[in-house]
Amino acid sequence: MFKKALSFIFITLSTIFLLEAGLRSGGYLVLKFNPPSQSGRLKQGGETVILCLGDSFTFGVGAAYQDSYPRQLEGMLKERFPRKSIKVYNLGIPGSNSSQLESGLQRDIDKYHPDLVIVMSGRNDIWNMAGAGRPVFLLSGSRLYKLIKAAQANIAAKMRKIEENERALAPRKAPPEASRLITQGHDLKEQGRYDLAKECFLEALRIDPGNPDANRQLGTIYREGAEYELAEKCLTEAVRQGYGGDGNIYVELGMVHRIQNRPGLVREELRRALVDPRAAALAFIEFQQTCADSSEFYKEMEAFSAGLKDRGSRRMIKAMIALHRDKEAIAAIMRDNFLKIYKACRDNGVGLILQTYPETENVAEGVRHIADRYDIPTVDNHLVFEKELNGRDRREFFVSDDHCNAEGYRLIAEGVYEAMIREGMIDDTVAIAAKN
User: Fold this and answer.
1) Cβ–Cβ contacts within 10 Å for residue 158, how many?
2) Which residue of 28, 197, 266, 372 is 20 to 30 Å from 226, comparing CA positions?
3) For 158-167, how does the pLDDT look when each residue is reduced to its tens digit (9 = 90+)?
């Protein structure tokens, strides 16, 4: 299930890519998982502190709050070491890239004073350029870099216009009891209690038939529960009742139609989403799933971009195409970020474990390159899942959008747990030691 995380991704992914503001928005998600300490210094005496850094795979998109891999890891460690005080912080920010993680690492170290940092990052580097404009950015001065900077300027203006138009629209007023139920449903959904959240939204619709917010939320819940016909019905009604200007809902409808094997409708919905800067990045990624190969995908995107009247939208899509094609340059940036992460942990006396993703081979190669060169403990989830998936149904470990479910995150947590034990990073009496 997506939880509230997917809603957050839908609202912010393109803004992260185009306005380079992802970390500020991501702060809300971090606070959701880790409320601020009353003291300023989060680490208490004798406590072992572990930071899990990354994107949606760290945050736990696809599973309930308690089933993210950091939460499961904390449970495993506390069961194994009941006499130790162990705190695992989930600092995953959906949509973030390795540049953002690296740039905020020292701040996180200073705030949490960790004994160990666990990193899974790089999957979003192929489309998210936030933070990559620093001198380390290997494409500075290139045509691609200039194209993306021009796109950012155009889309920033377009975002301001969208916000002005939305403020000018009078919100639909729902009956007080329906509004209360929708707020309650949002809270329950945020906690991963989808069954109770669904009851709230259904009751809100009984009181206020056609309520767009209730339909919007139900559409996501039904989609994650593989009830695709109900998801389509709710999402379509939400569009009819007022969500039609938000490209994010068209991405959701595109996902539903893709799973229903209706490629024509997928393309129709995603083209609507591509012109909305709030949804463009996800729509771009989702569009790939409808194409037979990369050449067909690029051809369709270029033809679509050429037919747009809005210059900002044209530049935005051209920038994403160019960035997506320049995979080697992006891989080099990612490796450089991993090296800086390693050095920051080493210089601060903090242990480090790197992870690969369950399924992203190009990122796995970059992780292995740095891990082998500097002898960094690594959990190769790519190999673990490849072995586990041999002859088994993907749905045992993944939800429909390729994020992990609770069982998939359990595999990740077990891999980290075993690496910590194997490397002698934790025992009953000795805190985690940095590996130099």
Assistant:
1) 19
2) 28
3) 555 555 555 4
